[in-house]
Amino acid sequence: MKRILALAACLLLLAHPTADACTNVIVTKGASADGSCMVTYAADSHQLFGELYFRPAANHPAGAMLDVYDWDSGFYRGKIAQVPHTYQTVGNMNEHQLIIMETTFGGRPNLENKDGIIDYGSLIYITLQRARTAREAIRIMDQLVQTYGYCSEGETFSVADKDECWIFEIVGKGEQKGAVWVAVRIPDGMISAHANQSRIHHFPLNDPENCLYAPDVISFAREKGFFTGSDAEFSFCDAYCPADWGGLRGCEARVWSAFRLLGGKNFDADKYLDFAWGENPANKMPLYIKPEGKVTVKALADVMRDHYEGTPFDFSEDVGAGISRLPYRWRPMSFELDGKEYLFERSIATQQTGFWYLGQARGWLPDVVGGLLWFGVDDAATSALTPIYTNINAVPECFREGNGSMIEYSPTSAFWLFNRVAQFAYLFYDRVQPEVRAAIDAYENENVEMVKALDARALKMVENGNERQAKRMLTEWCQHRSQQLFDQWTNMSNYLLVKFMDGNVKRQNPDGSFQDNGSGKPIPASPMHPAFRERWLRGVVKDHGAVMEVKK
């Protein structure tokens, strides 16, 4: 989705109500704790509703056409030829465990093909319906944009299957139909990430096993004046999306933080701090790194909850964080004061997330059981992921498409429920968030164990020739488990209101019940009032102390 551009353009773009940004983290099977290929995706947009897209497999008659609608705007783009058979898709995965996620980097201006039919969102979901493997997906994506034109900005895709993970970057050719692109396979045992800034630098020109690219990816850059050196010197990101302050500070800094969290001693965070800080674009981070340890589902999910805690970018400590160390800043993200421009930080976790995923392609299991999409709605820091198998027959009601929208409240929609809890957390973050996080951790850790048992049951059914029974069982379990999550968050919403109403904190007994005042009537004990943090108080005194000071 929309990347942060050069500083001046960055400040302008971030003030616009549709400016969005997403984050992906890619984990190869050799880097994961259970041997799965994993990809995360936070679909961050102020206008995107949190729901789970579901398209059953289907057969289509000869000559059938497919209407294409722009994923962001909903406007009609045109028709393309339909294929005889399309695969089932659930979110950004399909029935064959193929995963495609994205972030938008924008790139050079005027490279969108205004007459093209295929936008980046349509490219994802159409390809998921047609491809079984990552390599096949890359080939189909190329065919679609060359045939019908690519009408979006520059894009980075994460493309993964049961065996391989690829990072695939593409940009249009302006008035010319088609696109130029490059795809690099992430070596097994490594992890990668991208966050709205083109990341592929130099790449091998004669290694089709590990690198694929459009035949004119270099010549087109020369034609446009983006590059003048030898082929061996060509850099995709420098040619099509040169790094600027906004692209580094607002985008690559998120990759830096993900690498810091998962790389540990294998990633020298201090070495690349000036790059993430926006001061040294030549000091590029590697495209991929080796994680410090095998990455678990839970550890990867928690990376998506990062607010730069404990780093120089941590914005929960300045006076703007208020009384409760709030690691959020409402839009616009930029402002001007006394002739200088300023920008709030953009962390991985953000309030405007529509939905977020952690996709797992588990090659040791048959496709009926192996594809697993951990799904959540709204802010990753205040929401829990629930497991959704990609061969289910229907999605849970609380995530169903059409169950509410951004302008239509639905009491049965998980998106609206999770937003309600998040809004409360934003008011008293350092008090409420620990309670929310404890509930998230308990639910997700329980799911990790439940999935193991469920896998075994479903696998036995498949091995006994009862594939339909396995699908039905998985569907019913996902629906039941999602409803349990919905009910837990409903209870949490009520509990938080009672405990923290009006900024008071009600006292609790060891069993969690609220203390009364001993009168025998439902009157609470005297509430607690956590102390204000000194840095915030000093800011208040500096601004208004002369009026507030108590006179002896």
Short structural description:
This protein is an alpha+beta fold and 552 residues long. Helices cover 32% and strands 19% of the residues. It has helices spanning 7-14, 120-128, 134-148, 217-223, 236-240, 245-263, 273-276, 297-303, 367-370, 414-427, 429-463, 467-500, 534-548; strands at 23-27, 37-44, 54-55, 58-59, 65-69, 76-81, 85-86, 89-90, 93-94, 99-106, 154-160, 165-173, 176-185, 191-194, 211-213, 288-289, 334-337, 340-343, 353-361, 372-377, 386-389.
Which key features would you list for this structure?
alpha+beta, five-stranded antiparallel beta sheet, 21 strands, 19% strand, 13 helices, 552 residues, single chain
Q: Would you mind describing this structure in some detail?
A:
The model is unreliable at 1-19 (pLDDT under 50). The protein is of the alpha+beta class and 552 residues long. A hairpin with an 8-residue loop joins strand 20 and strand 21. The chain is globular and about 80 Å long. It has helices spanning 7-14, 120-128, 134-148, 217-223, 236-240, 245-263, 273-276, 297-303, 367-370, 414-427, 429-463, 467-500, 534-548; strands at residues 23-27, 37-44, 54-55, 58-59, 65-69, 76-81, 85-86, 89-90, 93-94, 99-106, 154-160, 165-173, 176-185, 191-194, 211-213, 288-289, 334-337, 340-343, 353-361, 372-377, 386-389. The strands form six sheets. The chain has a seven-stranded antiparallel sheet with strand order 16-14-1-2-19-20-21. A five-stranded antiparallel sheet has the order 10-11-12-13-15, covered by helices on one side.
